């Protein structure tokens, strides 16, 4: 899930851009940037769930987040957070200081 925000952090759109299997989702940062440009978003929030129930981000989660941040930064789009949701809990990259 990607939430697209304007320059006052108001929601412009939310979209489920990617889906996958129980163990893997293919994320393409260019698709996030393309949609952000289309709706004139100034910022995005990323979110996804872990079917395993654990909200702890994987190394792959951290790497793709870095790729998305780099692509968005180039287009002057801020990534405000990446939320990983598990059974009854979540992890916020922003709260952990990773963004």
Automatic annotation (TrEMBL):
Q: Which GO terms describe its molecular function?
A: metal ion binding; metallopeptidase activity
Q: Which Gene3D superfamilies match?
A: Cytidine Deaminase, domain 2 (3.40.140.10)
Specify the MPN domain's residue ranges.
1-99
Record's keyword terms, sorted = Hydrolase, Metal-binding, Metalloprotease, Protease, Zinc
In terms of PROSITE patterns, this protein maps to: MPN, UPF0758
Q: Which GO terms describe its biological process?
A: proteolysis
- Quote any Pfam family the record assigns: RadC
What NCBIfam families does the database record attribute to this sequence? radc
Question: Protein name, please?
Answer: DNA repair protein RadC
Taxonomic source organism = Klebsiella pneumoniae
């Amino acid at each position: 899930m990607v939430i697209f925000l304007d320059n006052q952090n108001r929601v412009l759109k939310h979209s489920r851009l990617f889906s996958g299997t129980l163990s893997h989702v293919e994320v393409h940062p260019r698709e996030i940037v393309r949609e952000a440009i289309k709706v004139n978003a100034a910022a995005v929030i990323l979110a996804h769930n872990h079917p395993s129930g654990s909200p702890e981000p994987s190394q792959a989660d951290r790497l793709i987040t870095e790729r998305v941040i780099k692509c968005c930064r180039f287009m002057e789009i801020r990534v405000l957070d990446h939320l990983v949701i598990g059974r009854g809990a979540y992890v916020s990259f922003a709260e952990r200081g990773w963004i």
